[in-house]
């Protein structure tokens, strides 16, 4: 079922942060021994600290030339609104890559909102009834009409995580293995999926 069109309002966009602002928020949280958002624990704070180094690495991920060419040729401005949190490993791996892609085009702007602070948006964009992040919502920048979504992870990584869950590993080991698999992929699966999805979003933006 499609999310209601009025879930993402100009007020929501106004409360969002550009990627640089999100990174500053994560760094500030780490400096204070915390995580982002309303949910706080020592475990989440440690994950956020670990994720900061990952985010700085994945921001340097090589971009596919075909994808860069596609975003540079966007006919209408888009906003990529991303639900995220500093403690989320999948967000640490993929949100910096999304930001780097968005920076390639004057017609593409990436904005971030925190899952815990925007429950209405999160509840409208569940994955298999779960509040999985990161969740990218592509929007027509002028109308805020949703064009499509991506997330929380590429299908090949999603399948790996589902298989990993069957092993019933301790949570720290599960997170470590899932994160390593995602890092090893180096943004390739994400970019391949965006190459497939973006033409659909472009068509929706000009319809």
TrEMBL record:
It holds the Pfam family Thioredoxin_9. It comes from the Bacteria. This is Thioredoxin. It comes from Rufibacter tibetensis.
């Amino acid at each position: 079922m499609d999310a209601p069109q009025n879930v993402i309002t100009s007020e929501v966009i106004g409360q969002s942060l550009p990627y640089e602002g999100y990174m500053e928020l994560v760094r500030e949280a780490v400096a204070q021994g915390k995580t982002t958002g309303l949910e706080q624990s020592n475990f989440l704070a440690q994950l956020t600290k670990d994720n900061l180094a990952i985010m700085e690495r994945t921001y340097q991920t090589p971009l596919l030339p075909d994808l860069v060419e596609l975003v540079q040729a966007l006919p209408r401005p888009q906003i990529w609104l991303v639900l995220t949190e500093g403690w989320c490993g999948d967000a640490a791996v993929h949100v910096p890559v999304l930001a780097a892609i968005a920076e390639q085009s004057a017609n593409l702007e990436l904005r971030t909102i925190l899952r815990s602070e925007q429950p209405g948006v999160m509840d409208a964009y569940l994955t298999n009834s779960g509040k999985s992040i990161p969740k990218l919502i592509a929007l027509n920048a002028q109308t805020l009409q949703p064009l499509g979504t991506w997330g929380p992870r590429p299908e090949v990584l999603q399948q790996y995580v589902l298989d990993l869950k069957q092993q019933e590993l301790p949570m720290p080991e599960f997170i470590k293995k899932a994160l390593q698999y995602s890092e090893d992929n180096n943004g390739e699966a994400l970019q391949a999926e965006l190459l497939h999805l973006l033409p659909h979003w472009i068509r929706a933006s000009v319809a």
